[in-house]
Every structure is written in structure tokens, then in C-alpha cells.
Amino acid sequence: MSTAAMDDEDGSSSSEEEEEVKKEIRKEHYSSTHKILLVGEGDFSFSLCLARAFGSARNIVATTVDTHQELAKKYSNAIENLIELQQRGCVVVCGVDATTMSHHFFLTTQRFHRIVYNFPHVGFAFPEDNGCQILLNKELVIGFFMNAKVLLKKENGEVHVTHKIGEPYDKWDLVKEAEKIGLVFCKAKPFFKNKYSGYAQKRAHGRAPDEPFNVGESKTFMFRLSG
């Protein structure tokens, strides 16, 4: 794990960080005043897009299930992006499983305003529309929701999942599964990749993990804690 300065839960911060808060910068659904957890990052290009927009990554924790060695092998730009993120103050954590992340020794001490998982997918064991494949992907998302719920700030916290819509993706039942575990659906906003300069969505699995996939028609689904 690579770390940089990160606010603790009581909101204490340095004078430099306080100055950044005063100068809020927004990028779509995200703010430089949000403490943001990014889950399942591929080559870290989405994290870096936010960091560059904000001018800093001190409010960002970026995680990946891959090890440092796996990142270097799978993605042509991952290590370069990771280094820039760290230089901008980001906490980068490798080897984080989205379905168990609330038990991670670092993350368990943190709470976040936004927890973001873009295009979750387990990889292809079966064709995309196969019932077994859909079930595997649903299990991944359910595990993520359960862990994100633990790490979310109670006030103004939101869990975001960007996901393709239409068949067979609607069968993942994101809203229904989230509500089962105590998350309330807020809204879904269309996802436009061109609004996130530099973001390069990656296949992550198979023989060509560094190749892009077609995001097609996608939305960012937003949830909050119930009650």
C-alpha cells in the first residue's frame, strides 16, 4: 500500500487542506470537498481525471484488486498514472477486494462521502447473457454494496455504480439488490465518458486487459443510507 496524508474521520485537516476546501472544485457528481473512495480501478485513469480536475488528490483513496506487479503487466499506463496520483497526494491501495474491503486494515478506519465503482465485472466465465454469468456479477455488486454501506459517511454519503443499461445488464437488478441491504436509490444519471477527460475504461480480464470496451448506453446509479 502507498499512502499520503488523509483526513481522519473527525474532519481535522491542515491549513493547506482547509484552503483547498474553501476553493471547492466540482467535476460532475464529485467535489474537491468530498472524501472519495474509488473501487476497482483499472489503470487509475478515472482517479487521475478527478485529481487533475481538482488540482489535488488529497481527498481521494484509489483502490484496485490487482497487485503492483499485476498492474504493470496488465496496463500500459497504470504505473505512470499511479505515480502521478501519489505525487498529487492520493492514497493508492493495491490488492483490495470490493467484496471484503470494509475489513481492510486501512479502509476500516475511514469513512467517505462518495464511494465509486465504475463498470463492475467479474470477468467472463460464461457469455454475458448467461444466467450463471449474471449471477456472478450480481454477487460481486451485492458484496460491494454490503461493504460500501459500512464505509459510507452517514450524512450526505452516496454510493455510485456506473453500469451499462439494457439487456442483459438490467438483470443485475442494481436498485433491488441495493435496497435489500439498506441502501436507498436516489437517482440515475446518464454517463458520458467524454466528460471525464483522460478516462480509459479497460477490459481488465482475458487476453487483452488493456484494451477498451464499449461503454454503450450507461448510467451512474446513486444510493444513500436508509433512515
TrEMBL record:
It comes from the Eukaryota. One of its GO terms (biological process) is rRNA base methylation. Residues 1-26 are annotated as: Disordered. Residues 37-203 form the 25S rRNA (uridine-N(3))-methyltransferase BMT5-like domain. Residues 1-19 have a biased composition (Acidic residues). Transmembrane segments: none annotated. InterPro entries: BMT5-like. One of its GO terms (cellular component) is cytoplasm. GO terms for molecular function: rRNA (uridine-N3-)-methyltransferase activity. Signal peptide: none annotated. This is 25S rRNA (uridine-N(3))-methyltransferase BMT5-like domain-containing protein. It comes from Lactuca saligna (Willowleaf lettuce).
